[in-house]
Specification:
The structure is a single chain. The chain has 14 helices and no strands. The protein has about 375 residues and is mainly alpha-helical. The longest helix is centred in the C-terminal third of the chain and has 53 residues. The mean pLDDT is about 85.
């Protein structure tokens, strides 16, 4: 909700406050930036004082600050409220998967993570449409949506029964356990795979494909959106079946297969002769993503004990936010040097490199 529902109104915000498109795009940057620094800190705090103690206030802050954006009288006020909303959002995504990891185990955990990924895919598909429809009322209307977080926060507080880690005041002993986890080479390999996965998603797929379509096929924005939605749809369908797949195949094998699908899809994209042909690798990429992300997150959750799972999952959340931040910048730079072919071939090479590492390092 924090990003997908806002992107359709950026041009409207630019015209309302008489600012450049680049300054309007800062509404996304100032929202994601706090998470890079706060997510691991809040994850550790959730291990020490409890999941709900951190998650519920975070959701309330997300909802209140997000709603406050609709009352902004200037661009500076809007940026300030978005930053505060980003502070509220910093813990939400990481603690979400942490608590799924706490509540479920084994194949049930993989299945629950798959449903979680499917929900994210549905949100990525629907929220731009909802945000765009609300923008008919005014630029401020999509900022009413964060109010939904407030009743959900109270539902979590009173009705969600989840295991909580034993509260500890011994910070030194806790940090030693976290550092011991971080010496686990398998865990570091899973972090690396997560970072590459999101660099590929936010770089060549979400950032460059719209420009590729516009430059080579001169299609409308509607068709571009439709094609990108097919990534979310194929992703969601595959993610729902992640638990079933993990019962039949080893998780390590599924992660390797997903990166092989990435390689095939990325190599096909720049050579597609038309939009219909481009939809084939796009859907193939979505299948790989739907298989990869829930299995990776399940494996990371399994590497940590209850008492420090919040820290480990939050560090993974920080890795994701870094990838989301740098991917568009890096791929735009590569495009200037090597064009679309350079972007997709380099991305495929990155996927090949991580695939080889997964074969040798992820046992």
């Amino acid at each position: 909700m924090g990003v997908s529902s806002i992107t359709p109104i950026l041009p409207l915000v630019a015209s309302t406050f008489d600012i450049t498109v680049g300054r309007a795009a800062m509404l996304i940057t100032v929202y994601t930036l706090p998470g890079i620094f706060l997510t691991p800190v809040l994850g550790m705090l959730a291990d020490m004082v409890g999941r709900k103690t951190v998650l519920v206030p975070s959701m309330l802050l997300f909802g209140i600050a997000g709603f406050a954006c609709s009352f902004a009288n200037s661009y500076e006020q809007l940026i300030f409220f978005r930053f505060i909303q980003g502070v509220g959002s910093a813990a939400i995504g990481a603690l979400n998967v942490t608590m799924v990891g706490d509540i479920f185990s084994g194949n049930q955990r993989a299945e629950a993570m798959g449903y979680n990924s499917a929900v994210l895919s549905i949100g990525a598909t629907l929220y731009p449409v909802i945000g765009g429809a609300l923008a008919i009322i005014g630029w401020y209307a999509p900022f009413y949506l964060p109010l939904l977080a407030i009743p959900v926060a109270f539902i979590i507080l009173f009705y969600l029964h989840n295991p909580e880690p034993e509260k500890s005041s011994d910070v030194g002993a806790y940090l030693k356990k976290v550092l011991k986890n971080l010496k686990n080479r398998r865990l570091l390999m899973l972090f690396a795979a997560t970072m590459v996965s999101f660099i590929l998603l936010y770089g060549p797929i979400l950032t460059m494909i719209p420009f590729l379509i516009e430059a080579r096929f001169t299609e409308s924005s509607f068709l571009i959106g439709l094609l990108l939605s097919s990534v979310s749809i194929s992703n969601g369908i595959t993610a729902v079946n992640a638990g079933r797949l993990s019962r039949r195949f080893r998780p390590e094998a599924l992660v390797r297969l997903s990166f092989i699908l990435y390689v095939a899809a990325l190599l096909m994209m720049p050579f597609a002769p038309g939009l219909l042909w481009l939809s084939v690798p796009v859907v193939l990429y979505g299948i790989g993503q739907g298989m990869n992300i829930p299995i990776l997150i399940t494996m990371i959750a399994g590497e940590a004990a209850l008492e420090n799972r919040g820290a480990i999952m939050s560090l993974n959340g920080m890795v994701i936010k870094i990838a989301q931040t740098i991917a568009p910048i890096v791929m735009s730079f590569v495009y200037v040097i090597g064009g679309f072919d350079g972007v997709f071939i380099l991305s495929a090479a990155l996927a090949i490199m991580i695939t080889i590492l997964l074969f040798f390092k992820l046992r």
